[in-house]
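Dear U.,

For the methods section draft, I wanted the exact inputs and outputs in one place so we can describe them consistently. I've listed the two proteins in the order they'll appear in the manuscript figures. Please don't edit the token lines directly; just add comments below if something needs changing.

First protein:
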Amino acid sequence: MLSSKSYRVSATYADGFRTTAVAPVAGPKAAAKARKTVDAILKRCRRIFKSLKLEDFSKVETTILGTEEMYGSLARKEFEESREVVLWLAVHHQQKKALQLFAKEIAPAGTGMAPGLTNIVGGRPNVSPILKLFSFLYAMDNLKVDIHINGEFAVSYDQQQALPATDHVEGMQYPAMQVPVGGSNTYRLEQLAYTRSGDKGNSSNIGVIARNPAYLPYIQQSLTQEAVAQYFSHLFEESPNTNDRVTRFDVPGIHAFNFFLKNCLGGGGIASLRPDPQGKALGQMLLDFPVKNMPDLSTLD
């Protein structure tokens, strides 16, 4: 039900503090050295926290960029041996003082921990507050709205003139599509479609547009809600119900699909500690998805 008797409100609330350290690491076993450095930094900070009677970190997010950790179980193993990686270490704590101490422990990593850490990007990490989004409906009857023009009262808004609530109308959908011709070929989604993605709070949209309308039935058959949920399974934290993680919407006007991934961004925006807090890379990551049982593309042009 879409209610015209309620305001759509987007509010924010404070939830502690965050900071992020980013550092390149080079040389043989660079990824292993980066992880050892993270372990040493966190161990030292926790020892200091304990001595000062401060609580532990609320959350820690570590990603070794260059090893395909952002792909989860789909990461290619050979990248684990990369000789150039970037350490991403983001932490969350309810007290600013704790993260100021953490920030001071980053620089010594370059001189007293695993060799190969070349630089702290941006210098000592800055501590900033975390603001989280809270969206809700608020009854119009609870507020009186006066409209002023040039500083003078003009009129009061009459909520009774609002349109009545209407039932939700489902968007346009594709007619039943049958795969016209099968085959034994497998193509990467990039060969069949364009993609782009972005955030909606703590959720993400991925748009998939077929390069050729003839490819659409094959994409529809392979790129199901369940398949996309499995592909990005490592991203979901707050949705234990795997059937509720991804919704696919048809977009017939441009031969496309829109996938909505629920609660997949670790908080989203500045509340997320991840290196991709807005899901900008998700569409590009999906381009490697294999679409199977297709004929030769030349027969579909």
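Second protein (the one for the lower panel):
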Amino acid sequence: MSSTQVLIDTTIETLERISVVAASLHLFSQNECIDEVSTESIKFMLTSAFQGFLHQQHYDYEHRRSNLLVAQEYYKDFHHLCEVYQLAQTKELTLNRMKNPVNNNNRDEKIRRLKQKKELEEKVAVMEKRSDIDEEVQREIYLSMVQLWVLRSEDELYNINSEIPLLEHMEKMRHGEVAPVQPRPTKVMKPFILVKSEQQKRVFGAGYPSLPTMTLDEYYDKELKRIVEQQKNQGKPPPEPEDPDEETEEGLAKARAWDEWKDTHKRGWGNRHNRS
């Protein structure tokens, strides 16, 4: 066991003893508000949050799921205590990435929470550096830390709720209860030489017989057929033909393709026929 894991286990044992003492002293009650809790008692509200965080730091695979389940309960206990004292809003604590993925609907909320956490972290850091910390300042520090860990506990519960199903699925795979997901085959595009005319096609084709050679017109016709077929499958009509005298998308596409080819192929490149 690493020194870090030993320190984590030792700290967990210390926090367990503290929580037992706090419970025996009846520091918290559902019949009082936060103003009735003494300043020195507020810091003990964080005990369950710290226990949840430390259990979450156990990464050994064999016990990962059980440690996450323990951490989950500690975070919920902490959040419920904060709800009692109206330091946290009642929320659905079973959400995960499957039930509530990050999208346009909740991205603003995620950003707002990140800003709020950063503001609380900076607030606590500034107040702790003060040389004149009286009871009022100390109380504000403790309350700010509780509010910060409310946000953290909600985020960590979201992460835990997302990780546990993955661990359960991996465990079933290990025992052969479910088949592993097979990766989808990827379509590999075969290399080819793009040339401007039939004459260049014959020249490049002679120099590189193993690579197919395609003129710019052939390449564009092939891509146009693919696009038309794709639009048919999607129920969209193919693009209508335009005036050939105008600067059409077809002409622009051919010009762009030829310019790209010239950028990557020097003049005479590939024309090695009858050369040593």
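Candidate sentences for the figure legend, describing the second protein: The radius of gyration is 33 Å. Strands lie at 193-195, 213-215.

Thanks,
Y.
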